[in-house]
Design brief:
The structure is a single chain. This protein is 78% helix and 3% strand. By secondary structure, it is mainly alpha-helical. It has a two-stranded antiparallel ribbon with strand order 1-2. A hairpin with a 2-residue loop joins strand 1 and strand 2. Helix 2 runs antiparallel to helix 5. The chain starts with 5 loop residues before the first strand and ends with a helix.
Amino acid sequence: MKSKAHFKGHPIHPILVCFPIAFYIGTLLFDILGQVNDRPEFFTIAYYLELSGIVATLAAAIPGLIDYLYTIPPQSSAKKRGAKHGLLNVGVLIVFTTAWFYRKTPDASINFILLLELAGVIGLFFSGWMGGT
């Protein structure tokens, strides 16, 4: 299958997915480091990493959706996997967006944020595995 969303023959979606993966994992790590080391500046870094991950997810979703709609053969097992991959990524996006908005509230619990982000990273690993097959 040749991607419909490509640049000079290279598919765009696989190139872009590395950014939200790195940003989301970095978000979780900086929040953990901020909590363990009592370093508020790490929470600020996590805030911007999370926002960057949300934006990068939306950027990667566009060529991913194009490939899903126009490249993957209908009625194939790949179409079913692609649908699960996309839906799981939407769930990951919702989890991280929820954590990002929640963190801005005055009484935000870092433990709840960490729990959301851990769930998001676990979902991200499963989604990446499905997208890579």
